[in-house]
Amino acid sequence: MNPSITIVVAMLATFCRCFNNDVLRALWKMSNEVATENFSDLKCVCLITERATGAENYMFPIEIPVYYVHLPLQVTKNAVRLSPDQFEEYSWDILLLEPINAGCLAYIVQTSDIGFMVKAFARLFHTPKAINRNNRKYLYLPEKHIQEQEFNSNIKRLFESREMDFMPDLVVARVIFNSSPSDVGIISPLISDVSSNFTIELFTHRFIGPKPQSSEPVYLDTWIPEKGLVRKTNLYPDKISNMMGKQLTLISLNYPPPAVARVVNGTQVYDGYEYRVVFEWAKRNNFTWKGICYPDEWWGEIYENGTGWGITGHVSMDEADVGFTVLYLWYRDFRFLDFSSNYHMSELTTILPKPKRLPEWSIIIAPFNYEMWLAVGGSVLLCSTLLYLAYKISLKLLGDDINLKMFSNWGWCFLCMTQILVEQAPDGNLNSNKKGHSAMRHLITWFILLYYLVTTAYAGGLACILTLPRYESPIDNIEQMADQNSKWGTSSDDCWIYFLKDSHNPKMRKVARNFIIGSDEFIGEMAEKAEMGFAVEKMMGGYFALPFYIHERTMKKLRLMKEPYTAQHTVFHVRKGSPYKKSLNVNLQRARDAGLFHFWEGLAARNYLNFRDQLSVITSNAQEEPDTTPLHVQHITVS
Ligand SMILES: *[C@@H]1O[C@H](CO)[C@@H](O)[C@H](O)[C@H]1NC(C)=O
Ligand SMILES: *[C@@H]1O[C@H](CO)[C@@H](O)[C@H](O)[C@H]1NC(C)=O
Ligand SMILES: *[C@@H]1O[C@H](CO)[C@@H](O)[C@H](O)[C@H]1NC(C)=O
Ligand SMILES: *[C@@H]1O[C@H](CO)[C@@H](O)[C@H](O)[C@H]1NC(C)=O
Ligand SMILES: *[C@@H]1O[C@H](CO)[C@@H](O)[C@H](O)[C@H]1NC(C)=O
Prior knowledge:
Blueprint: H1 3-15, H2 21-38, E1 45-49, H3 55-58, E2 66-70, H4 73-78, H5 93-102, E3 106-111, H6 114-126, E4 137-142, H7 148-160, E5 170-177, E6 198-205, H8 211-214, E7 217-224, E8 228-229, E9 247-251, E10 260-264, E11 267-271, H9 273-285, E12 288-292, E13 301-302, E14 308-309, H10 310-316, E15 322-328, H11 331-334, E16 337-339, E17 344-353, H12 370-398, H13 410-421, H14 435-467, H15 478-483, E18 488-490, H16 498-501, H17 506-513, E19 515-517, H18 520-529, E20 533-539, E21 544-545, E22 558-560, E23 566-575, H19 581-593, H20 596-608, H21 611-618, H22 633-636
Helix pairs in contact: 9-19, 9-20, 12-13, 12-14
Bound molecules: 2-acetamido-2-deoxy-beta-D-glucopyranose (5 copies).
């Protein structure tokens, strides 16, 4: 035999600490028992192995559908990232996305690198390609024997990682050999069993409680070959309903009335109806929370690679567990995040400059509109022509010696018609004894009758206009905004219009193009001058979340658009498949059923909003003109 090969084989024999068949059989038998006990009511289970370790021989038969994925370590570790600017993905993802999207909620993973697999799951549940959104259960099995110290430091690092905050149902198994004294489980009580020379210890992370303690390993149970679990502990206890002071991170804006996050008298204050539901939830599930707020980033955006900014971006990057502040059900975010059930509504609308008064000279033409004026002008021309023709024909047919000068050419006929238009009978010498004259008299009488109607209509219109001031036509909905090409904007971000930009309706796209995102100074100045419109949000209870530049003074020149341009349900954002979603939904539903959101909205409005500003917006449509008086009887009686 070649000596070098001998050396390699010898090295392998020394360093591979692979388990023998007894241990492997025991691991799979235990997995079978755990799956039968705890996963039997799930739709399916996913089994992932790195090597062929006999799972198919010892794990099956089992009465649950199982996806068996064989994923060698070299394949996963050496894969290159596809498309660097998209969400992180590798060619082997497809193998795991299949069971994920089939709805498997339990994963039995035999791996030599638990940390890597945990990160892979966190990424795969986050990608837009993962459709199923649920909290999952995990059972991690060892692949080979690892030194005590190395194993402990790996587990410590794993349990301190951020991923553990959204994977409460995780059980790690390790094999303890009775023969080697260094292999005593540090966290398990000593269970010596004469009939077998190894046992399998199961543990999890504490999860509940404040930070350093929540990362501690917690001993669950020991599995002994031929006997099974010693203590019959529940391996997947409910860790959410009492979190014992675990800290969740909340992200919001300072945007009363839904969320108030501001410093009052030197202390940070959190309030608003969305914070209040979190307070109730925190009380019920016994957790603490930390509020974060990036006021300049507003609602933000999630990039295709899963990172982002603002509320949605920070929830997507797992920097916050829960995000809120009137977030809508937007598909753009739904691909990367999970939504709670909806609990309240809000409307987006616009505050626009008041319609201006029409100039005084326009009163003369105001009684008729453009088409009517055209019709009157056209009819005068037409009637002049008819008169001229009628005169020519009667001259020919009746052959009388009429020869009136006033009908002798078209110009005179036109002059005659204009006279009739202003209610003046033409003063020709129309002699009733002459046949031709008589016919013309008939015709002219009919024309006088026709223009009498027109003149009366004009006079009636004028009387009406002199009584009421005239304005430009007002903008009451988004179509009219598009028709009048009115500019509008905000100093926050494009959340106000991003769904209009992709609309199929060209008018909506036009409105979106007219939207301006300006600096605080610029928009503030525009509001003072009332030169454009401003996007505002109205809550379901009727209160407005007003930006700083909309207040009583600026509202003097502005008015609220009558119809909102969108109205939507609002939700909380959490991580995709977050374990907190279920309990959050329960608390939202309770508060909604009790009508608390309306109550809390009013409370926040009273405490944090300026009522004069609110009132100036609400009444902006019904303001009186300073120089008009109501019509009284003495105005129309002759004294
Ligand atoms: C898991 O199985 C154990 C033993 O039968 C049982 O006590 C426990 O309630 C189960 N847990 C779940 C979450 O099904
Ligand atoms: C375990 O004990 C059995 C006999 O009880 C023995 O055959 C086997 O070699 C032992 N295995 C180890 C790894 O010590
Ligand atoms: C809630 O958590 C605290 C620790 O933050 C703990 O002292 C208290 O006992 C818990 N309450 C309940 C009802 O378990
Ligand atoms: C802030 O301090 C002032 C003066 O000390 C006090 O009048 C006011 O009530 C305080 N406001 C709040 C919200 O505590
Ligand atoms: C994600 O994409 C954005 C914009 O395309 C880019 O600015 C950012 O650096 C990317 N982040 C990472 C981690 O690749």
